[in-house]
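=== Structure Prediction Worksheet ===
Name of assembly: unnamed complex
Input type: mixed (protein and possibly other molecules)
Chain count: two
Listed entries:
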Amino acid sequence: MDYSSFLQMREEFSLLAVMVFLLVYDIFAGEKGLKYFQPVALVLLTVHTVLNCMPRDAFEVAGGMYQYVPMQTYVKSILNIGTIIVLLQAHKFLNEDANRIKRGEFYFLTLSTLLGMYFMISSGNFLMFFIGLETASIPMATLVAFDKYNRKSAEAGAKYILSAVFASSISVFGMSLIYGSTGTLYFTDLATLITGTPLQIMAFVFFSVGLFFKISLVPFHLWTPDVYEGSQTNITSYLSVISKGAAVFVLFTLLIKVFGNLVTQWQPILYGLAVVSITVANVFAIRQQNLKRFLAFSSISQAGYILLAIISGSAMGMASLVYYVLVYMFSNLAAFGVLSVIENRTGKVQMSDYNGLYQTNPRLSFVMMLALFSLAGIPPFAGFFSKFFVFSAAAAQGYYVLVFIALLNTILSLYYYLLVIKAMFLNKSENPIENIKSDFPVRISLVVCTLGILLVGLFSTIYNQIAVLSFGM
Amino acid sequence: MGVILYYMNFLSLFVLIPVLMMLGLFVSNSRKQIQFITATGASLLLILSGIITYMYLTERAAGNVAEMLFTADTVWYAPFNIHYSVGVDGISVAMLILSSIIVFTGVFASWKIDPLPKEFFLWYSLLSIGVYGFFISTDLFTMFMYYEIALIPMYLLIGIWGTGRKEYSAMKLTLMLMGGSALLLVGILGIYYTSGATSMNLLEIAKMKIPLTAQYYFFPLTFLGFGVLGALFPFHTWSPDGHASAPTAVSMLHAGVLMKLGGYGCFRVAMYLMPQAAHEMAWFFLILTGISVVYGAFAAIHQTDLKYINAYSSVSHCGLVLFAILMMNETAATGAILQMLSHGLMTALFFALIGMIYGRTHTRLITEMGGLMKVLPFLGVSYVIAGLASLGLPGLSGFVAEMTIFFGSFQHTDTFHRVMTIIACMSIVITAVYILRVVGKILFGAIQDAHHEHLTDATWFERISVVTLIIAIVAIGSAPFWISGMIHESVIPVISHLAK
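=== Predicted Assembly ===
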């Protein structure tokens, strides 16, 4: 066997190298050296991102266990950038006295989930996929319960791990049915072997639950608000963007690569899920007073919009999906960034605490406003373009009614996004949040997100690059 | 800069200048600077619209018969065939003139805006980007994008600087108009994908034939989508609340220009691209617009708040625009565009004057005012002029527009159209009732409130704003030939497309 072919898995090895280095550094470095832990980690991650941002030719490793297509590079790069932004935002939190000792673990766990997502994305076999899925979820549960003396955080961790394990066990059951009916777990073989027998359809339904859970679609979303509320804000943002972004891409590729023959079955399923997810999440979001729960519901509805891209199954759909994830990452991370700055400093997360924020913190409110407008899909911000493309991809396949329902929901979502903007800009407050001077890393992260929101839409190069590499049924 | 201009052609200056204004405002830090930036920008836009008109007319006189002039086209999103394409014909030029005048006068009407002047003008500039961009683009995507850009600043403009039930009105307006744009987006996607065109350019899609069944679905969606912005009954309810709560300059820009986006869009997109469905379904929308016209006028009689009166009168007058468009002949359509222009100018004048009166008397209820002509002669006379223009006095712009519309509508010989025309004509009488009643009540008679005796008349910046609008109204009213000629020849291609 030619082991050198393994070296082609450059992204994974480079990330693994960073992880191992950080672990060793954290254990062996002295008090003085540890001061530079976070800067070193961020620089290494940035180098890792830059080195691995160019797409290569498609290849296979280990007889098809690992399949690479150029598009994956873009997805992984988006995840990398998102992770770096999250880590920048967590900088302050990790420098607090109580957390400094756990800093190394935070980085290691975060990067393990990232590694898990890499394998999930590039898997060519259900076993590999399952290993990736679990590598991505188990450390995640640890992260959610990171603040273990906080009851809410511990509760959220328990909720997450229980429901995640439940979902993946159903998923594994689905895989076993697939194996039972076809005798293989390799994606390439399955593409022809899955013909649409009732057992296979059942297998598909069971299997996909695991992914729907990760994407947190209604009715698999019930863990989302509690876990989002309970965990530390930076972890919430990681959960809502990175973990979700990887899962939607994997769902898309699996649907077209493996379950291509079941298209008549999965399209109505996704149709229903999209309608229910968007509508239910929007209706629930209106009533939320806690902004973390609010963004949790908002992220569920955003996931519903992404389904519109998946349902099309076309190359255009894939390009729109990746682009949507990119834009969603910038917008959501900007919103969570502001939220975490304010929560770290004052502990306030209620919408009523944000009354009059513009008077005292004009910049933070401005970033928050851009983020919310982008999430709502208002031009000229990037969110408008990503929504338009997703709708366009669905409309191209004739799903006009679905697009219409989704659009009606954007009005609803605009309503609740405007509620936050109203609190910040219109409402007056007796004791508004004092002026917060955010530290340098957070500021970088917010600037990056703002630039992303403002520029990704207006410059078409990014979308065009993605579109070149996208593929569909 | 040079590169951008090379790609975008000079029409894009209309968008670029407000963008530069925004950048300038972003770094400005005193009221003087803010005033300088906005006044310069608005004047440049006004001058630019003059230049465009001149160039357009010379180009036409030189025998250029292309449908759109000064076109430019840059591929933006190749996979979706989205282009950034611009071009103007007589209708868009007329709208650009209107927008420029109103943006210019709006700046002077809100010269002393308080609080947060910087933020106010930032949003105001963004609003004008949307308006200008909409009128210069010929690509469905960019049109839609600019349309939405124009909607969202409204929320903050009304919510922060408005009066009365501002939060409710701002939310209602934003959500209803967003609802309109949701209908519109489905319509646009439907048009594009069923036409089989290879670009989203209007002119190219117009050459395609959209299947009839698709037209039946997408024509009502598109027409209603734009119609919501054009205050089509029963989707007009955002307009009175929104306009009444908005600050002066925003009411001016919104009633004056933004509502015209609706009419323009109905004409340019819905009817131009889907002529068969337009013919089949016109009767239904004609009834709705007829209701708008009459209902708006009746509702205006009933109101006691000056802004509500004017807002309902806008519903009536904008209803007339859509009414005329649906008549589908050259004369009526020309009248519709003239009405957009004329209504835009006079409603802006109304809102400007109401804002100025309110700033002095601190009330907008007509029951609490009287005899203002004695203390505020300049504002009083201007109000009378605006009123006379609104009820269609010959020599002022309202007469020209309404005359052309009714002339055109009466060319239809069948009973249905005749009856509709007669009903719509009634609105002229009702308009006269509410205009004269208000003028008589607030300007003449005894002074109601002792505080009103010592009010000061308009300041210089208010006068600039008012005089500019009056000049424009009189100019169109007394010499309509050049502008109606320009509009007429651009209406012909659309109407002939409809006649097929």
